[in-house]
Each structure stands twice: as structure tokens, then as C-alpha cells.
Amino acid sequence: MAMGYNRGINAYNQIGKQSAIEYASPHQLIQMLFDGAIENLNLAKAHAGRGEVAEKAKAINKTSKIIDGLRMSLDTSVDHEITRNLENLYDYMSRRLLLANLNSDVAIMSEVVSLLEEISDAWRAVPEEFKNPKKAEI
């Protein structure tokens, strides 16, 4: 019975996530990516601490894919220092995660979580008028 209950909760959570994504602004979608990366990397740290190598690797791989998504979301058509710095930082985080995965290094995972949290906090602090440019035009 518990197994069916857990499946039901998981299905409900998936529907909630899908709905949130469907109605999110581009700014909110990026914030969701940061949240997902941090959540998965914290999960990877927990798996590493319990010696669960396969689960740790899966969580780190999810985080790496999210970071790749964040990198791809950068507007590289504009030659801007912030864009270049973020691109370099995402590349650095990806390389660090590769090393963390190979060595089950929780300290490196914590370093990347801290970097993601800093960027996420800055993203949250973006003024409202820049979060949804279409609203500002109305």
C-alpha cells in the first residue's frame, strides 16, 4: 500500500511541476533551473555521504544538464561582460562537477552549490520591471 501511495504523491508532484512550468515567465523558468540544480546537487551530496555511487552520479548528471541549460540560455548575441563571466562560471562548475563525480568529493559539490546559490540570489534580486519585459511594454 505504501508503494502505491508514494507513486500517487510522485504523480501529483509531477503534475504540479508541469503546471508551474507551463505558466512560468522566462525569468521564473531560469529560477526553477537554479532551484533544480541546487536541489539535485544537495541530493548528490547526501548520496555520496551514504556511499550510493549510482544515485550520486545520476544527481550530479542532472545538475550538469541543468547547468548546460543555463549556459545555453545566455544571450551570446550581445557582447556583454556579464554574459562572458557567466559562461565561464558555468563552464568552471561543469568541470568541477566532473571531478566531484569521479572522486565523490562533497567539498567540490558544496562549492558548486554555493556558486549556484549566489547566482540564484542575484537572479531573484532582479527588479520586477526586468523580470517580464512584455508586461513593461503594456
Quick one: how many beta strands? 0
In angstroms, what is the radius of gyration? 17 Å
Report the mean per-residue pLDDT as an integer. 85
Instruction: Give the structural class.
Output: mainly alpha
Question: What's the CATH architecture name?
Answer: Up-down Bundle
How many strands, what sense, and barrel or not for the largest sheet?
A: none
Tell me the span between the first and last alpha carbons.
52 Å
Kindly estimate the percentage of residues that lie in beta strands according to DSSP: under 5%
Low-confidence stretches: none
What is CATH's topology name? Answer: Four Helix Bundle (Hemerythrin (Met), subunit A)
What level of helicity do the residues show?
over 70%
Helical stretch tally: 7
Q: Any idea how many domains? A: 1
The H-level CATH homologous superfamily, spelled out, is Flagellar protein FliS
Give the SSE string: HHHHHHH
Shape assignment: globular
Can you identify the CATH class? Mainly Alpha
Give a written overview of the molecule.
The protein is mainly α and 138 residues long. The chain has a single domain, classed as Up-down Bundle (Four Helix Bundle (Hemerythrin (Met), subunit A)), CATH 1.20.120.340. It is 85% helix and 0% strand. Helix 2 runs antiparallel to helix 5 and helix 4 (81-103) packs antiparallel against helix 5. It is globular. The N and C termini lie far apart (52 Å).
